[in-house]
Amino acid sequence: MREEILNFLKENSGYISGEELAQKLGLSRQAFWKHIQDLRGLGYEISAVPHLGYRLIKIPDRLYPWELAYRLNTKFVAKKTLYYKNVASTMDIAWELAKKGFPEGTLVCAESQRRGRGRLGRVWLSPYLKGLYFSIILRPKISPFKIGLISLLSSIGIVEGIKRDFDLPLSIKWPNDILAKERKLAGILMELDAEQDRINFVIVGIGLNVNTSKKEIPPEATSLYLLLNKRIDRVKVFKNILEEIERTYLSFQEEGENFIISNWRRLSYLYGGRVKVILPNREIVEGRVLDIDQDGALLLRKDEGIVERILSGDVEKIV
Amino acid sequence: MREEILNFLKENSGYISGEELAQKLGLSRQAFWKHIQDLRGLGYEISAVPHLGYRLIKIPDRLYPWELAYRLNTKFVAKKTLYYKNVASTMDIAWELAKKGFPEGTLVCAESQRRGRGRLGRVWLSPYLKGLYFSIILRPKISPFKIGLISLLSSIGIVEGIKRDFDLPLSIKWPNDILAKERKLAGILMELDAEQDRINFVIVGIGLNVNTSKKEIPPEATSLYLLLNKRIDRVKVFKNILEEIERTYLSFQEEGENFIISNWRRLSYLYGGRVKVILPNREIVEGRVLDIDQDGALLLRKDEGIVERILSGDVEKIV
What we know:
Chain A has 319 residues and is an alpha+beta fold. Helix content of chain A is 31%, strand content 27%. Chain A has helices at 2-10, 18-24, 29-41, 65-69, 90-99, 147-163, 224-228, 234-255, 257-267, and strands at 45-49, 53-58, 81-84, 107-110, 131-138, 170-173, 177-180, 183-195, 199-209, 274-278, 284-292, 298-301, 307-310, 314-317. Strand 8 (183-195) of chain A pairs antiparallel with strand 8 (183-195) of chain B.
């Protein structure tokens, strides 16, 4: 009911009569007033003028599930959303939910994380109200060997989602980062529960620096705020990203690996470049990035001419 | 203390004086008698003859953890064992323990399973006291893309473990079965908790038909009992397998993928043969099995000459 009142207020730029609205919704004046007060408590600025009625002045900067759901154009992503002010990590919550059987597309988001993490146990700083920190449950019907593709398609979704509203030079850095001007804007973490032949579920975790200031993130990072020099509507960019991740995921299901490979080529930071890769065993290999393969592995042509298939590692461009 | 009494009894083929033994262990005659009664309650046959003392006549056909631990020659496998009479699946228990941080090598075994499972949600029949149904927690420092190797090395361990005592024509059928005379003797299931770059843990689940009769297993299966025409000491074969799995695992850590590949070639049912593979997408490919690669994938040369890398599927030999 609160949501319905909110939607009425949103869809009217002028004042609407409280009495009429209450009547329409079958509410007593008192119940209606209680809802307005609740909304104000949640941070909504609602002006009330005698004889004129109510008008929505300002929506708070919060990732409330009903704000995300409002006109969100998805089939399954964020159809169920769990919202937290502060959590250790959205990954752990999403994992528990997935284990309990929550459906594909279930979203867990938080305004801040105490122990946000990146790949290999690294930290992802998640200051309060400054970024998007979320995890999505996916249940792709692919071999666990192809899991790298899920991280790449999420990257594509993030880039396309941001590009809808902002003309920024974004690129995807294999295996799991989004860069802008050589700095890290977003990162992806995946945790999977799998058998040898199939994935039970993957949790895709995404951290995006939105309104983060310079001192809140590591030196090698950036944020939309720093890139655009203005505060960004987090809900809007979040919805764009959720829609684009779903679109990319569905396209992958229809068109297969080539959809990801061609988009990766188009958006890749590394494609064709000379790189140094630090492998998980600390070994270092150098070469030119030829492509990615059907499993999302990086194909590196070493100077001796041999092509190495790289499944994981940290990559640096050599200029 | 009960275990110490048991070990004394085991290590003496003749009678030992209860009074002396009680004294040695610092027990009262009453306390000692209580332990003997407990052991009898657990199924141990212990004869007591006045003036002579006690003698162990028979060890029950149970996978008691202290029986497994008795003279078990391992560094980490089964150093911690959880034993159950009946469970839904040892996989689920091992998973929960691994999540809680139980160490590598932790073993969960059961005398029967209500919902023992195989690959792809298939059923693994687990009748009471007839087989070995167990799960081991492993934490290999390898990429999740190489998980197939863990199933292969477990297969090698099972075959070597059984072969210690029995001269049987055993072979490994990629990806996860042990065959004897074209029939399934054992199966392996893996469930993993992983990130893109590392494995948090793998649960290796093994089902082995030991004293199972024809009517207790599917027609395409067999058991050690059916193959050897005699009842088998489950504890003995279990210990051999646990030791060989550890040995194989440690050799893999030292020598790398080639250790698994060469052993696979030696023991493989499919190596060099013509096969039909049903892929997860129901597509069928035919060809000759060339080898497995560094990730444990099957390399199939199709009739057109193209070599296909198969990550998962059901394989049948074509005669």
